[in-house]
Every structure is written in C-alpha cells, then in structure tokens.
Amino acid sequence: MRSMYEQGASLERVGNKFGYTAGTVRKHLIAAGVMMRDTHGRV
Q1: What is the pTM for the complete model shown?
Q2: Based on the number of CB atoms within 10 Å of its own CB, is 37 exposed (0-12), middle (13-18) or buried (19 or more)?
Q3: CA torsion, points 35, 40, 27, 1, in degrees to nearest 10?
Q4: Which of 12, 27, 33, 42 could tie 22 with a disulfide, CB 3.0–4.6 Å?
Q5: In 1-43, which ranges are continuous DSSP H helix?
Q6: Band (18; pLDDT cuts 50, 70, 90)
C-alpha cells in the first residue's frame, strides 16, 4: 500500500486493489508514518 501511494496512486485506487476503503488505507498509512498528500496531490 505504502509503495503504491508514494508512487502517486490515490487512496481509493490503493484500497480497491487490496479490498479496503480509502479511509482504512489512509488510517494505516498515517500509522506507518507516511506523509499524506492534500486533495491536489501535494505533500
């Protein structure tokens, strides 16, 4: 998940691949210390 997100995939796209909601993916990425992008893709 982390790798996909850091390469530019959306939370929704990552979630769809792994069977999770975008919110669940976001929660786990934050817990893993990943810097989240804003809605325009900026860090």
Answers
A1: 0.86
A2: middle
A3: -70
A4: 12
A5: 2-6, 11-18, 22-31
A6: very high
